[in-house]
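CORE FACILITY INTAKE
Project code: CF-77B
Contact: R.S. (postdoc)
Sample description: multi-component assembly, three entities in total
Requested service: structural model of the whole complex
Turnaround: standard
Below are the sequence entries exactly as provided by the requester. Do not edit them.
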Amino acid sequence: MDWVFLSELAINGALTGLLYSLFAIGLVLIYKASSVPNLAQGGLTMVGAYVVLALARDVGLSLWLAIPLAAVVMFGLGFGIERVALRRLAGRPVVMILMLTLGLDIFLRGTTLAIWGGTSRSMELGVSYDPLFLGDIFISRIHLVGAGVALALFVAFMLFFQTRTGIKLRAIADDYMASWSVGISVERGVGLSWALASVVAVAAGVIWGEIQGVDQALSLLLLKGLTVAVLGGLDSILGAVIAGIILGVVENVGADFLDPLVGGGSRELIVAAVLILTVMIRPHGLFGRHDIERV
Amino acid sequence: MQEKVEAQNILSMNSVEVLYDNVMLAIKGVSVQVPTGGMIALLGSNGAGKSTTLKAISGLLKAERGRISRGGITFQGTDITEALAQKRVEMGICHVIEGRRVFEHLTPDENLTAAAPRGMSRSTLSAEKDKIYAYFPRLAERRNSQAGYLSGGEQQMLAIGRALVTQPKLLMLDEPSLGLAPFLVEEIFGILQRINREEGLSVLLVEQNALAALEIVSQGYLIENGRVVMHGTAEALKSNSDIQEFYLGGGEGTDFHNVKHYSRRKRWLS
Amino acid sequence: MFYRLSGVHHANYVSDSRIFKVPADRNLTAFIFLIGLAAPFIIPSLYLNSYMLPWLIWTAAALGLNLVTGWAGQLHLGYAAVMAVGAYSAIHAARFGVPWEFALIIGGLTSSVIGSLFAFAALRVKGLYLALTTLAMQFVMDWVLTHSPAISGGSHASLQSPTLALLGQEITTDTGFYYVAFGWCVLVTIFMLNLKRTGLGRALVAVREKDFAAAILGVNSFYYKILAFATSSFIAGVSGALLVATFFFLAAPEQFSVAVSIQVLAMVIVGGLGSIIGSYFGVALILLVPGIVNGLVVTLSDGLGMQINVETLAHIPNAVYGALIVIILLIEPLGLGKLYGNIRDYLMVWPFDQFKK
């Protein structure tokens, strides 16, 4: 057993995992504030990355101006999605809401590709590709940057959910009716959560776009993001971060063991297996709230 | 004359009809007046339309696909028949909904924060909280535990406290005594009376526990099958033989003849 | 034509539980059935082959999913994987020399067995979590398919389907393929129409509404959930096999990917959960409208002399497909079947209900 190699796998896995968390935080935000599973987060991430590129390349802004501007645009888009689509289906069975978000995902992907085309573009953040060495361990810089962004967002949202607005969002997730009865604007709260998730999607889109190029494949992060979110407990941001690290490590180390046995490509299998096992063994995840259903 | 009545009554509800889903008529012309600073009870059995009446006043009907199809509601002289629930809370109507629906995954302290109106300053909020904890000392002890694990009585107190944070002028409570031990009901009703006295808060109380309710209110309305069938002072209601028979569980022994007589009376009432 | 309810009185339970309670519905169905029979002589073979045929097979498949999602209320995002199991096992069986009739049944039964695995997830969780589990299972199936050359057919991952032959008759013409699809779709439809009237159908609905409440009433929800999954998987398997045998002719893993699972679910939901006629509408809408819109865009841009980039054109159908799902759900969450029902009920008593007010 090569311990250096194994710890390199583990550390890089953890960093990649934090990037999954970055994606999953968007899912968790919406679930935490409205109990809606947002399967459109993949589409949103893709749109986020494309909007950044559109502002940077087509309009010609500097990338550092384009990213915050894109965040503003996406903030508006998130509010718009709630206003146009989610509000009408509030209180409907989960199957319809799932389908709605899936439809949104397909629509967002289709529209993005129709406007900007499907050829992969590069983000060019300017992060050096020279490897970073920690002792003997090789670390990718962009992963480190992304992990930093994920942790920063994590801290920001942990603080946010302690503010008065954050508490109101949590209250909405608990009970729509009771929220209305004390004058909380449920619609505005849910809209805000979609807007924030869309901003997170910009962050995830930029980082992942830098790593794997800006194209349709960005929306495929959905499965990994979902797995992280479910493992963490769907409504726990801390859970999303820890689950991200766990999934990243398991995936990286596991793939290294499994790939030679099955002839490569076992990553997806591991992710799917983690998702199935989580739901079967502990549906509310590591840190999720536990709801009791009564007849 | 009309204006004078308006000035005395903080809320007046005039022959309101409520339709659910555009088909089901839940209340059929209910008129209720709440005098400023008064304490009023709505009595009646299950499904009589008491909760619907409260929801019509607080604007929560919309969430259940209901609407006011006839009649109007005025609050402090303003027509609020069509206003949004959120607007009504801002104006000072707060509805403690049935079943102690506290925000279970939040702490009591956060429950109170969640209900704070927009723009309430930090110092006002903490003053409000202190006042509420003074009314309900039990809540203060458990302010940082999870609200879902509070006992039933504590949850009811929290629900009332949460409503008080919105600084209401009219507090409406839907069956606060539901499923609580008699001494807790007494404690909560005592606190309600104190709040009513000390802050001049008008209270509209919906109750099945008529005995307890009539002890603390000044007037009561009896609702049956979506209509007001009786209205009077608490004393008058308490001494009414029908009320005694149907709601207070008292009166003389029931022989078959009497039961028949009462059910005929009851049908006539509704 | 008018007053179609006149003279319709159900005086006993037998008459009230008939498939078609109103003669007008039965006549309409018979009329459509006849059109279906005559379609090869009416519709040009190009349309028959590229629109009617997939429409019918997908409808059969969607009805199968409707059984498990609409009736039994179990979310299923791995339906395409189950179809793949049926398709691959039937084709392997046929290539091995098993007659097609049996190959199709083998495909159906294999699907049933594998599909019942999904039911075990449904026993543990429901709603969102079931959707996610079935989604993950779809990924596992996809992975198995693409990573086992023995199943997917060698390095090119494509498997030639042998010529379809039923009842000793080789089927090679478009008309022949069409009748096979038509027959299968009619069969599934009749099964679903009758399901409503049986104890099984009622038990499934009870499980959907509240499974443990159903259990208290003595409905064994464990048994019925597995039965629902097994039956729907059988339909999926045969539909998948027929799709390859009469339409694709070549089985490839991407024909049964996650996107396809989502597409079938979209067909069912856009059509209306639990609605049979709705499934027909839903499939037609999801399958045909994006292409039609694309055609319109091409004609329009040609007409206006605009140049639309090829890539844009390639992605417009996808955008339209997503938008359709969202729009239909916003207009009527119960789908096209409900919209049809509303119009039908309105016309049923027209013009008499105008006098009511």
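Facility notes:
- The radius of gyration of chain A is 19 Å.
- The mean pLDDT of chain A is 86.
Invoice: internal transfer
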